[in-house]
Write a structure and sequence with these properties.
The chain is of the alpha+beta class. The protein folds into 2 domains: about 70 residues, no CATH class; about 80 residues, no CATH class. It has a 5-stranded antiparallel sheet, with no helix packed on it. The longest helix is centred in the last third of the chain and has 23 residues. The protein is flat, with a radius of gyration of 18 Å.
Length: about 150
């Protein structure tokens, strides 16, 4: 059973495992910092997304370095490929396709913000080179380098 709770600025999504043990994703800074539960040990892994301030980032207060959803999807794609080598399953192909499609749509959205078009195929999009400045596969920084 899934439970969602909000206490102040902390949001928690937990899953009851029946034995009284709860695994949960903890929202530390909404939209930017998350605590992910560990398995096989105590504690949590902190996932931090880049946070920027300014007119293009309404509602953001404070800023810090972090990763992007696209980078996390690239890691998940590699993880599914690794797990599939250990435990092959037909569902992994569907998961890989879905993760790649999500990555493609995020990159298409980013390109569109700058009036550019993403002309790359969905297949193996995680292997496309990214910009060192913004992390996207199609951007104005890369256009200037041409």
């Amino acid at each position: 059973m899934l439970h969602y709770s909000t206490v102040g600025q902390k949001h928690t999504l937990t899953k009851s495992l029946g034995s009284g043990i709860m695994l949960g994703m903890r929202v530390i800074d909404p939209g930017h910092v998350y605590g992910l539960s560990h398995l096989d040990g105590p504690g949590e892994e902190v996932l931090t997304f880049v946070k920027r301030e300014g007119a293009r980032y309404p509602g953001n207060v404070g800023h810090y370095a972090g990763t992007t959803m696209q980078e996390v999807l690239r890691a998940l794609i590699e993880r599914v490929q690794h797990v599939d080598k250990q435990f092959p399953d037909g569902n992994n192909a569907v998961v890989l396709s879905s993760l790649r499609r999500a990555l493609w749509h995020l990159e298409a959205r980013a390109a569109g913000v700058h009036g550019l078009t993403l002309a790359l195929p969905v297949e193996n999009i995680e292997l496309a080179p990214t910009c060192a400045t913004c992390g996207h596969v199609v951007c104005l920084h890369k256009e200037k380098e041409r």
